[in-house]
Amino acid sequence: MTENCRKLLVVDDDTIVRQSTMAYLEDSGFDVIGASNGRSALELFSQHSPDLVLTDLRMPAMDGLQVLQAVTELTPGLPVIVISGAGVMGDVVEALRLGASDFLIKPVADMEVLVHSVRKSLERRDLIDQNSRYREKLEVANRDLKEHLQVLERDQLAGRQVQKRLLPPTPAYKGGYQIAQRVVPSLYLSGDCIDYAYLSDRYLAFYLVDVSGHGASSAFVTIWLKHLVTHMAQEESLFGDSDSFANGPAVMLERVNRELHKTRLGHHMTAFVGVVDTFDNRLSYSVAGHLPMPILCTAGKVEYLPGKGKPVGIFKDVEWQVYQRDLPEKFELACFSDGVLEILPPDDLCSKEEYLLDLLSNIGGNIEALSEVLRLGAIEDGPDDIAVLTLAGTEIAKPLQ
């Protein structure tokens, strides 16, 4: 706002002083009105709503301090400059206590001092008003942001519940096998996905997939993957016969790779896909860029399964190799997503893999023992999603739950 738009009210019972002050301020570009006493000043104040008040201190009937107090009550924060010929320190203190923006001593020898005081008082008021408007806008923005975050949190929680319901029961049993899982998301939603099923009363198929990225978009891919693989198992007999046992892990990865390229979801994934022939105790599996490799614990030996393969969703027309391994009657197989490497103490990858191998040589591949020693239940806001899948050959036969 320019100075010639700013309206000033000058209050002084001395006509000569009042008129000379008004004339100088008008020449300085202000719109000025004058009052000869406090009461008429308050009437003009109500009628014209000036931007600043200059008032003499010593006036009959209603002095400058009373004018100051009345103006401050009517319009808190409005700048009021008090001018006094007495120069008593008590008057200065009282005026400032009541909210005066400045205190000048009569006579004002240099009127530019008065103009400077007026301008500074108005600038200070403008800055306060501007900050107040910014604060109001910020409060509105914060309220809107809080509401949006609450909506997002509800959506994320709902999505998390959907993901939980899509996870298979844990633990689950079939014949002499126990399979279990644990997924710990770094956010509400997880890009790690685990599923398993018993098919054709013979084959126990499972996979652990780690989708690139975090949050809702990665979680959407896990849900898409779940429905695609379920459709393949139910409608196309994936993992349902001896031929699919022999080549099913590679078939699944190749199909997912083609579909992922078609959907253009912008994600890739690493995966370990396995299927156990429960009649022959034989494991068939494929690896798609998965790290770390699953660890097989047998009597007297703990080792990483061999295997390699390209991630899913990056390259077109990729073929994956199928590996096979005979399993003893008693064994434990533990599969991890790469998020587990983030919580292990060593610094480099090789040391982390050795640490994980030593860990399982001491506690085995039981899901409860792994969860406890890795403190999975205590992780909050982890650096990455963590998924653990365990498969064990046991001597206890229970129905699949």
Folded structure, characterized:
By secondary structure, the chain is an alpha/beta fold. The chain has two domains: 3-134, Rossmann fold (3-Layer(aba) Sandwich); 167-398, Phosphatase 2c, domain 1, CATH 3.60.40. It has helices at 15-27, 38-48, 64-74, 89-97, 111-166, 215-235, 242-263, 339-342, 349-363, 367-373, and strands at residues 7-11, 31-35, 52-56, 80-84, 102-105, 172-184, 192-199, 203-211, 269-277, 282-288, 295-298, 301-304, 323-326, 331-336, 386-398. The strands form three sheets. The protein has a five-stranded parallel β-sheet, sandwiched between helices. Strands 6-15-14-11-12 form a five-stranded antiparallel β-sheet, with helices on one face. Helix 2 (38-48) runs parallel beside helix 3 (64-74). The protein is rod-shaped. Residues 396-401 have low confidence and may be disordered.
